[in-house]
């Protein structure tokens, strides 16, 4: 029997890459693409693709069941604002939403996995087949951090870990001992751009600044892993930031070689901490 894998796909290259690697390994891939997040044209070679809106839990389960899928992954960014703008629950989804005790991301996704697994499905690590994309500790780029930048990074790491613990976000932007911005519902890219707008008003243009991204203290690898890619660097360049630090061995760096090459081109410091 052919191996089958289901993917609940959000934005970005992460679910697309998982689908490609799974097919290379002989899997038939069945994709549930979240409306306003995934792009159907990215999955033209999969066994089957189906659009689904956030909250259509019953329809998603039926799609996997009808195709004989038992294992699935949840991968890709989901715009948090789409929870409010693109929600269209079916009957089972409405019952599930009514049962939630919190609307925090961690609670919603962990409960969602529990609900789907009640039907006999197995939720795999969301970075399935992407094990080589988690850099170990060290500086990845030609540019090394200065001593003031090192201190800024350490401060940012403490802040990022705290907001991650509180399930607010995984990213912060700091300068010296001040927080410029923390990631909320808008996501990492918009957090960086917002911080850039604020940083431009800084009187000391030489003040060291850093973008710092971490995993949750009790990160569940089945969902919402910290991810960075070339888009992260392009937004940093637009915002005027040149230092990116992320948690070593826990942060997924998509297109790792391309990310490092782009960082070197922009003369950025990329550091796994």
Write down the overall mean pLDDT.
91
Based on CA atoms alone, the radius of gyration comes out at 19 Å
The CATH architecture of the largest domain comes to 3-Layer(aba) Sandwich
Summarize the amount of helix as a percent range: 25-40%
- What strand order characterises the main sheet? 6-13-11-9-7-8
Helical stretch count? 9
Please tell me about this protein's structure:
The chain folds into two domains: 4-123, Rossmann fold (3-Layer(aba) Sandwich), CATH 3.40.50.20; 131-272, Cytidine Deaminase, domain 2 (3-Layer(aba) Sandwich). Helices cover 36% and strands 20% of the residues. It has nine helices and 13 strands. The strands form three sheets. The protein has a six-stranded mixed beta sheet with strand order 6-13-11-9-7-8. Helix 7 (188-199) runs parallel beside helix 8.
């Amino acid at each position: 029997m052919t191996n089958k894998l289901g993917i609940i796909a959000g934005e970005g290259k992460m679910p697309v890459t998982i689908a490609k690697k799974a097919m290379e390994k002989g899997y038939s891939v069945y994709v549930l693409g979240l409306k306003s997040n995934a792009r159907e044209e990215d999955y033209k070679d999969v066994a089957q693709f189906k659009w689904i809106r956030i909250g259509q839990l019953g329809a998603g389960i039926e799609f996997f069941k009808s195709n004989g899928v038992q294992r699935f992954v949840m991968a890709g960014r989901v715009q948090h604002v789409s929870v409010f703008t693109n929600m269209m629950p079916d009957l089972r989804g409405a019952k599930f939403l009514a049962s939630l005790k919190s609307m925090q991301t961690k609670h919603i996704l962990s409960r969602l996995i529990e609900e789907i697994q009640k039907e006999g499905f197995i939720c795999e690590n969301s970075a399935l087949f992407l094990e080589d994309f988690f850099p170990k500790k060290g500086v990845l780029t030609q540019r090394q951090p200065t001593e003031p930048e090192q201190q800024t990074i350490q401060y940012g790491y403490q802040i990022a870990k705290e907001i991650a613990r509180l399930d607010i976000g995984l990213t912060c932007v700091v300068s010296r001992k001040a927080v410029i911005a923390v990631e909320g519902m808008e996501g990492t890219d918009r957090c960086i751009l917002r911080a850039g707008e604020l940083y431009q008003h800084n009187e000391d243009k030489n003040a060291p600044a850093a973008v710092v991204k971490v995993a949750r203290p009790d990160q569940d690898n089945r969902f919402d892993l910290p991810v960075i890619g070339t888009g992260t660097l392009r937004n940093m360049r637009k915002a005027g930031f040149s230092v990116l630090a992320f948690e070593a061995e826990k942060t997924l760096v998509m297109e790792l070689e391309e990310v490092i090459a782009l960082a070197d081109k922009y003369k950025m410091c990329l550091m796994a901490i």
